[in-house]
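SAMPLE LOG
Freezer: B-3
Tube label: C17
Construct: single chain, 244 aa
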Amino acid sequence: MAEKVNPYKDSDQSKKDQVTKMFDTISNEYDGLNRVISFGIDVKWRNKVVEMVAKAKPKNILDIATGTGDLAINLTSTNAKEIIGLDISDGMLEVGRKKISSKNLDGIISMVIGDSEDLPFEDNTFDAITVAFGVRNFEHLEKGLAEILRVLKPNGIFVILETSVPTNPIYKAGYNVHCKLIMPTIGKLFSKDKVAYNYLSESASVFPYGEALNNILRKIGFINVEHKPQTMGVATIYSASKVQ
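STRUCTURE (predicted):
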């Protein structure tokens, strides 16, 4: 079970409402700060997700927690005919829509506001579903994963890219310094929302990763569940499928 961490500890709003508010607030600065905080390595991780999805030759893809659409844009290289980016933050989506228009990708990518725990799609709709740095923001993790399983086609591919904690003690020490000191400090200096990057750091440190998340995916009903740690274990890519 994922430990509950909310952005605003003194707020009576649900986690979902708090996450929406937070991402709406930081939407215009998110891409730039994300590149700085991750040292640009997140681009390499997303490219690996795209490579995995491309092997499945999907005709349509759903990118959940799409944010400003980085992964959705990268997924156009799979030659999918339709890509839907879904997010609860309209502020993030609006930034993404501008990026998509500037690349003349409006005919392929649609940006849709929606709730990952109540997806507005029929059963067995998508050949591939992706979530990059988004599952830890689900208010009810298992409910969100069950919805993903529902709308994924049989034999479809589901890929998660999410932060994780290195198991090597030396790498783990460096990871903790980065997450608990560097990341919040950069956020406080340059972000409009002074607590946002504290939340992003804290939520990353307590979210289940590796075999723990694999077991949750299997419990929901996913098959062929695998995980591949990235860059000394600071992130992990998970893949799973749906029984035919």
